[in-house]
Structures are given as structure tokens and as C-alpha cells.
Amino acid sequence: MPKYSYHYLLAASALFFSACTPSAARVLPERNTETDTKIIQNEQEYLDQAVLKQSTASLEYSLKETDPLKLITCDREDITVTTEDHLDLSSAGEQEITYVLHFNDSEREVKKVFQIKDTKAPDIRLNEQERTIEYGENYDPYANIVSVSDPVDGDLKRAEGEESAGVYRIEGNVDSSQPGTYELKVIAADRNGNESTDTFRVTVREAPAPEPVQAAAPAVPTHDYIANANTGKFHIPSCSSVNQMKESNKVYYYDVTRDDMIAWGYDPCGRCHP
After folding, report:
1. What are the structural domains of the chain?
2. Are strands 80-82 and 93-103 parallel, antiparallel or unpaired?
């Protein structure tokens, strides 16, 4: 059996009894409240010194979803930033987001304001910029509009009454009974008041010249005539030559013209000159 010194055995025994002593019986060092307070104060001071920067303070009005955490950066990488707020880009105006900075057990709130701005005006599309119509033609200027739409609000409707937002209308009119050129303006406004305009012209032709009215040919007077079948002459009934004709040679014509008689092969009498 090996031999150990007295001092060695004494030290080993002490170590054995120390290891076997229950933990509840050990005497732990007391917490230093003042030290803990200083640690917390230092953490809070560290948070207070952190700078939260916005990548932009102005956002375009749209239907897109945007994560507010992607719009800020913290100058200290060991600080975690969270938020429970959301940005609504479909609502123009000022929106406030509350961010929370976390470092160990300490927190700090930082508020940032974003402006949602609608900078895009409606788009107006027309069939044509110039149009010529006939005098008296029935013309509807709204038929020249293909579409009026906004990037976010979609298709705008035709204004009714005094509506001014989210609608379009035409200023001016065309009177097809008055020849000339008329300029019409299309005005469109989205929900947030952005306005755009476009113009087109309509020309009304001159009224067609009236067709000339031909004067009616003067009426040719008609008469009653008595022709001589033997001599081929025609006479007015009161001619003295009629009394000298045989009754069998007389041919009676009623309500005919002188030209008719000549066309039928008769010659006018040299006495009565019918």
C-alpha cells in the first residue's frame, strides 16, 4: 500500500466532504442590485443612442403591399427592430409606423411618418383628334372617347351632375346646324384630385347648296280646230273657210295645240292663222 503524507490525506478528505455537501447548504454570493441597475441603464442608453433611418419618407400611391421593416435601417447590427403596424399604400396621406428596438431585455419605441402620395394622373385615350361631320348630322362627342383610366383607381366613369373626383367629362359642345370648327376638352380626375386633359376638334361642313329649281315650261294654249280632210288645212271654228267646206270633209279636234295639228300633218290656214 502506498504511503501518503499527512498533509496530502488531510487535503483529500477536505475535498471529499466539500463535494458531498448538498447544494442547498452552499452559501451563494448575494446579487448586487446596484450593479444590475447599472447594466439595465447601460442597455437603455445604448438603445437611446441607436439611430433608426428611413430609406424614404415618401411612397407612391398604389395597390402594392410593402413591409415597413424594409423601409428602415438601424445603425447598430446587434439591435433587433420589429413593428406590428402596416402601411396602406392605397390610402393617400400621412401614415405613422411605430417601430420597437430590442436589445437584450430592453426596448425603445421609435415613430416614423410616411407620406403616401398619388402623383400619377389618369390616362385619356381618344379615337381621333380631328373629325369632320356633315351639316345637320347627329353627333355624340362622348363616342370619341376610347377609355379613361387611372393606374390605381381603374376605369373612371362619366360624370353625372356635380361630381369632380373619380370621373371624366367633356367641356364644350357641337352644333351641327352651325358650320364651323368646335374644340372640345376632355377632363379626367382621379380619387385624389390628380387631373389630366386632352382636346379634339370637330368641324361641321357648310350646308349643301340647294338644287336649282327649273322653271316650269310655259303652258302651251290649247284650242278647238276643224281640219279639212281634202285640203289638209286646219282652221279655227270661226274661220270663213269652214263655212265653204263640205261637211264630209270636216274633221273636228278639241283641246289640242297648234303644234299637235302640225305634227299630225295639217297645215295652218292662211286666212285665220290658227
Report:
1. 36-117 (2.60.40.10), 123-204 (2.60.40.10), 223-268 (no CATH)
2. antiparallel
